[in-house]
Structure to design on (89 residues):
């Protein structure tokens, strides 16, 4: 029980940091692709939080992978009007 609690706190901090690095504070500010990433991050964090047999890195590494993909896509959207039209519509 204590291990699950500690894992939950650690994953909460990781998800909080990732969401802050994404730069969004409210759901209303999210673009559709950002909402999808947020849902995926929540799912990735929930599995290792409850299953103590699964290493916590199996949740943390994909979360940071999604962060990198989000930052890359945001950069591309910033530089390309055509890409912004495709992704943000």
């Amino acid at each position: 029980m204590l291990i699950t609690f500690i894992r939950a706190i650690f994953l909460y901090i990781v998800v909080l940091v990732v969401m802050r690095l994404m730069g969004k504070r409210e759901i209303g500010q999210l673009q559709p692709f950002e909402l999808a990433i947020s849902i995926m991050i929540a799912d990735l964090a929930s599995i290792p939080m409850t299953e103590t047999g699964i290493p916590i890195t199996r949740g943390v590494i994909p979360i940071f992978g999604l962060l990198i993909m989000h930052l890359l896509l945001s950069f591309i959207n910033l530089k390309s009007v055509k890409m912004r039209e495709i992704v943000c519509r």
Summary: The helical segments are 2-22, 32-50, 57-79, 81-88.
